[in-house]
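**User:** You know discrete backbone vocabularies at least as well as I do. Would you mind producing a protein record, from residues through to fold? Write it directly below this note and I will take it from there.

**Assistant:**
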Amino acid sequence: MSNSQSGPVGSTDPTTPAKSGLPKPIILFWAVLIAGFCGGAGYLEYLGPPASPVQAASSTAKAVQPPATASTKPPSEPGMVAVSATLGTGSELTEGAPIPTPFPALLTPSSFDPSWKLPHVGSGGLTPMRAYAANAAAEPGAPRIAIMVAGIGYNRANSLAAIKILPPAVSLAVSPYAEHLDSAMSAARATGHEILLGIPLQPKSAPLDSAGNEALLPGENAPNNEKYLDWILSRTAGYAGTTNAIGTTSGGGFMEHPEAVSWLTQSLAAHGLFFVDAHANAPAPPFVWGRGADVVINPNEGVAAEQAQLAVLIGEAKAHHTALGVLTNPAPDEIAALNEWCKSLAGDQIALVPVSSIVAPPDATEASK
């Protein structure tokens, strides 16, 4: 990105007669006009694309609109989320295609702070979980496995490795606290990874462990939950779903309170998002499209333990037709091992698909198995 540094186009020495025979004022006029055009083009190149998807969304609200004709019917098969690639041509999003940048029509200001832009259902019924879902090819009847890698955005090098190395069908979960959140989101979208946003929830080990100052709390002592949820959802834009996987915690304390979970999932459903419970063998969440994890891989146990857990995941997929594995904060060697394992699935006639492809409809507790 650089400004044009070429010499003045058509410039003349005012002390020397113009060789063209044209009057000097005309020559100077065209010189200024052409130089201004070149300079403007160079400056636009220097500016490049918007750095923040949320800022871009708020400034172009009238420029991009999802189609009014988009289907408002939920997918007939649980979790098979159909999505249009351009939200304007009706073409289907192909495997590995970039995820669309945030659509202004799918954002709305928070009642707590108008500068906080929240995901919401568009006027035509289009939801963020449909607009920003990835797609992947799967043979009819083939077992399907989805992998969610959480903790993206904390460690820049590891996050970029996961984004660039792992297949596009692997879904990525970012944290609202992540220092490199916007750059991680942009890179993940460009490489076709479906994105989930982590929701900080009170961990089971609280107060010894914390999920941050804006973590949602269960019970009557949580008057700020609505405000905190708005803050969390507004940290970035363009994600299809949410999860309770944040760093090394997954909100076990919060998830033990059914009333708190029901409030959260109903809120997420109103925003048009799905929810993944990152606890192993967790049931499908109520009131919202979602899924519980089948296998949770501990990143601190090394590659051998990771491979053993991935083998269990294959068994789950063959037994129940679908399976979801969760890996949080993987190191480079674990990312490389996961990538090789993903490549091997085709030999087992198992399809690797994004998380949105296997989420179940609200309250369909048996559909996720």
User: Anything to note?
Assistant: Residues 1-92, 364-369 have pLDDT under 50 and may be disordered.
